[in-house]
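tool_call: predict_structure(chain=1)
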Amino acid sequence: MCSPSCAPNGATRPPRSAPWTFSNSGGRLGAELHVICLCAQWCGTCREWHPVMDDIARTLPHVRWRWLDIEDEAELLGDLDVDTLPTLLVGRGDQVLFHGPVLPKLDLLTRLIETLSHQTNSATGVDAEALALWQRLRTAA
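tool_result:
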């Protein structure tokens, strides 16, 4: 896991790949499960995470994926503080199903996504800022 203090000088962003945008969702965020990875280009763990997310995105095409750089898209974050990277925001429709840091492990992410695919209720304890980000993303998509 990364925090802002672990940023190396000269870090570069992982390349974006096709599964990482909302453009393949056909419009506004709706009934599909959406996974937003809150990361930063300077975070080594995020750079390790990117290929893991690419792999799972290819195996789960029904899930929509987005890499959201917390510095490049800071205005979209609003008042949400992201203290640990990478952090996932997972939602469907108007519900946030999960918000929190996750280790870049394929089996953990796969299990989390499979579980959330069947979840019908919003997660408990999701802070207001995470809900507000989800609503902004839904509106912007």
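agent: The first helix runs from residue 44 to 59. Proceeding to next step.
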